[in-house]
Structures are given as structure tokens and as C-alpha cells.
Specification:
149 residues; alpha/beta; 5 helices; disordered C terminus
Length: 149
């Protein structure tokens, strides 16, 4: 039990701050369901599941989000959730039919959390950055990229 007891969170497995956020929410008492890919993704540093501390405190379900059945089940779970965490590249959840608009249509009270840190492409900008300074700087991973021509 903790201060977030009774809060239901769906985590669409990604890399970076998403798994850390989900772990902390679970540590604080939230019920977190991690939706994994059915096959290994080759993303990030691979660790054997029993030794991956970032996965502690939550259940996992393997779903193919590209299949109609997997997407439908994910949306049904999201409909009953209080929050969703996703860590995909910009545009991926929208292509899967699991973007903010899709999810909020089914669950208007949902808190939709992604790792983008800002809007995808703010009006009048040409920025191609994809990581928020808020999570890169403390980790020492702060890197800038030049805008594409």
C-alpha cells in the first residue's frame, strides 16, 4: 500500500524514462500493467528478466499492438486505467491507433504520459530534438543535434 493505492496505470513498454516512471509509480502503490512486445525488441541494454530491477512491482502482458486484436485489448485496458505511460518515438502510438486522441476518446479522464517533453513540432520551429533536457541532463546524456535542412 502507498499513496497511489487504487490508481491503475498502463505502461506501453519503451526505453528511457518510461520504465523508471512506471517502477516509481508501482513503488508508490499504483497498480501498473506493462504491455510488452511479444518478441524481444533489441532496444536498450538487454538484461535477464529476473535481474532487471526497472521491471519490479508490476505485471506484464505480451501484446502485438500492430494486430487488431492486440490493439483492441490494449484500448479496453486503457479505458479502465487512470494513466498511460508510453515511451515510443513521436508518431508511433498515433500510427498504432493508440495516440492521445484515440485513448482520450475512449477515456476522457485518462492522464496520457509520453516522453516527448514538448509538442511534436511546435509551430514556427524546425527543431528535431527528441529528448527532453529534463531527463537527459541529470543522467549525463544531454546531447544536441543540428536541425535538418
Amino acid at each position: 500500500m502507498g499513496p497511489l493505492a487504487g490508481i491503475k496505470v498502463v505502461e506501453l513498454t519503451g526505453i528511457g524514462p518510461g520504465p523508471m516512471c512506471a517502477m516509481l509509480l508501482a513503488d508508490l502503490g499504483a497498480t501498473v500493467l506493462r504491455i510488452d512486445r511479444p518478441e524481444p525488441s533489441d532496444l536498450g541494454l538487454q538484461r535477464e528478466l529476473p535481474y532487471d530491477l526497472l521491471l519490479r512491482g508490476r505485471q506484464a502482458l505480451a501484446l502485438d499492438l500492430k494486430s487488431p486484436e492486440g490493439k483492441d485489448l490494449a484500448l479496453r485496458l486503457i479505458t479502465r486505467a487512470d494513466a498511460l505511460i508510453e515511451g515510443f518515438r513521436p508518431g508511433v502510438t498515433e500510427r498504432l491507433g493508440l495516440g492521445p486522441e484515440d485513448c482520450l476518446k475512449r477515456n476522457p479522464r485518462l492522464v496520457y504520459g509520453d516522453r516527448k517533453g514538448r509538442s511534436r513540432t511546435p509551430p514556427g520551429t524546425t527543431s528535431t530534438t527528441s529528448h527532453s533536457w529534463a531527463h537527459c541532463t541529470p543522467s549525463g546524456a544531454a546531447v544536441s543535434r543540428r536541425p535538418r535542412p
